[in-house]
UniProtKB/TrEMBL annotation:
<keyword id="KW-0547">Nucleotide-binding</keyword>
<dbReference type="InterPro" id="IPR003439">
    <property type="entry name" value="ABC_transporter-like_ATP-bd"/>
</dbReference>
<dbReference type="InterPro" id="IPR003593">
    <property type="entry name" value="AAA+_ATPase"/>
</dbReference>
<feature type="region of interest" description="Disordered">
    <location>
        <begin position="240"/>
        <end position="261"/>
    </location>
</feature>
<dbReference type="InterPro" id="IPR017871">
    <property type="entry name" value="ABC_transporter-like_CS"/>
</dbReference>
<dbReference type="Pfam" id="PF00005">
    <property type="entry name" value="ABC_tran"/>
</dbReference>
<dbReference type="GO" id="GO:0016887">
    <property type="term" value="F:ATP hydrolysis activity"/>
</dbReference>
<feature type="domain" description="ABC transporter">
    <location>
        <begin position="4"/>
        <end position="213"/>
    </location>
</feature>
<dbReference type="InterPro" id="IPR027417">
    <property type="entry name" value="P-loop_NTPase"/>
</dbReference>
<feature type="domain" description="ABC transporter">
    <location>
        <begin position="311"/>
        <end position="495"/>
    </location>
</feature>
<protein>
    <submittedName>
        <fullName>ABC transporter ATP-binding protein</fullName>
    </submittedName>
</protein>
<dbReference type="GO" id="GO:0005524">
    <property type="term" value="F:ATP binding"/>
</dbReference>
<dbReference type="InterPro" id="IPR051309">
    <property type="entry name" value="ABCF_ATPase"/>
</dbReference>
<keyword id="KW-0067">ATP-binding</keyword>
Amino acid sequence: MPKISLHQLTFGFASNTDLLFDHVDLDLDTRWKLGLVGRNGRGKTTLFNLLQGHYPYQGHITSTTPYTYFPATVPDPTLPAMTVLQAIADVADWQVVRELRQLQLDPQRLEQPFAALSGGEQTKALLAILFADETALPLIDEPTNHLDLASRQQVAAYLKRQRRGFIVVSHDRHFLNQVTDHTLAIERRQIRLYQGNFAVYEDQKQRQDAFEAQQDAKLKKEADRLKQVAVDRTNWAQVTESRKHGNPHQKNSGWQAAGASALPAKMMKRAKNLERRRDRELQATEGLRQNIEHVAALSLTPMTTHYQPLIHVADFALWYGDRQLFQPVSFDLNAGDRLALVGPNGCGKSSFIHYLQGTFTGQHTGSATIHQQLTLSVTRQLTTENGSLTAFAAAHHLNYRELLNTLKKLGLPRDVFTTPIDQMSLGQQKKVELAQSLMTPANLFIWDEPLNYLDVFNQDQLATLLTQTQPTLLLVEHDQDFIAAVATKVVRLRP
C-alpha cells in the first residue's frame, strides 16, 4: 500500500514555546483524497513543508512517493504562462493542455504573460501543472482563495474526478465535502484521522466535544463536592481537638481519652484522602478540555447615522479604456443594510470599492455617490502593512492592549504579537486587517473578501457578530453560506 508514515514526529519553531507536533505517529494512504483541517496556526502548511523536507525535525517521515506543491513559486510572472509552467515541472505540453481543458481554461490563455491572467486563471494553471506530473502526490494549500463561486465549482469537480490521491488544505466546508474522502484534523493537543469528508469530521467533532464537556462538568461537580466534604471534616476535627484540650479540669476514662485522641487524627486523614481524590478528579478534566475549541465573541461599534441613502448608485458602470467591467447597475444602500456585492472574478467588485474610496484609476459612466460625512471602516483583500503591531496601533489610532485582545479573540497566538506584520502568514495578516476594522467605530463597514485565509471557526465567529450587531455593511464575498447568513441585500455585477 502506498503510504506516508510519520513516526515520533516532533517539531516546533524556535520562537514558539509550544510544539506544533509532539511525537506524532501516523500512517496515511496516498490514494486517499485527504482534507487537512485545523485552526489557523496549527501547522497545516508546516506539515506540508515537513513532508517536503524544508524544515529540520525530530522523528522520521517516510514516503513511497515524491510531492508536488500548490501554489508553486512562479519564477518570472512576466513570461508567457506556458513558459512559467514548464519551468515549474518537467512535463509535456499536451499533458498541461489535457488538465487545462478539464479545468475549463482555454490553453490559448497561456500565451499571455502569467501576470496577465486573473487570479482564478492562475490558480487553474498551477493546478494543471500539479496534476500533469503523474509521478508525485499533490499537496494543495488553499486553492479556493480568491476564486468566485463558478471557479470553485469547476475546481471541485476537477478534483472529484481525479483517480489519484492528494492532500488539500481549505477552509471552505462545501469544497471539502465535495472533494475529500478522509479528513486529518490538527487539534489543540492531538491529530485525529476521520474516515469521511468535512461534514463527517464536524459531526463527530461536535459529538466528542459535547461528551467531553458533559464529562468535564460532571467531574468538576464531584470535585467541588469532595472539596466541601474535606473542608467540613477538617473543621470538625479541629473543633473536636480544641474541645479535648479546652477544659483541663474535666476527667475522662481511659477509653474516652484514647478515642478522643484518635478521632481527630482519623478525621484529618480522611480529609486528606478526600483532597487527593478531588485532585485526581480535577486532573481527569484536563484531558477532556484540551481539544475543545473555545471561540471568544467579537465586538463591533456601529455608529448611527440619519443620512439616507448612504450610497446611491444609478446606471453605473466602470471602464478601463474601452473595456467595460460590468453592466450598469442601480441600487441604494441605506442605514442598517448589509449589502453583498457578488459576481465572477474580474467583473469589478473590488474596483467598485476603490471607486467609492476615490482610488479607481479607470473611467465610469452613470453615478455612484457615497455620503461625504460618513465614517468608514474598511477591510482589504490583502494588507500592505509592515512593521510592528505597536506601530500599527499608533498609525491607526488604536488602543494597543485592545488590539492584542481582539487579535487573541481572532485566534492569533501570543508569540506572534512581536512578529512584524509583513512576516506573518497571510491568515495572520488578514486578522490584523480585520481587527483594525472591528475596532474602528464607523457608520459604514466595507469588507472585501473578509473570509480569505480564515478558518471555519473565524467564519462562524464573524457571521455571529454581524447578525447580532447588525452594522451597515458593504460586503464582497464568494462564500454563499456566509452571504445567506449575514446579507439583507444582494447586488450582482454581470460582466
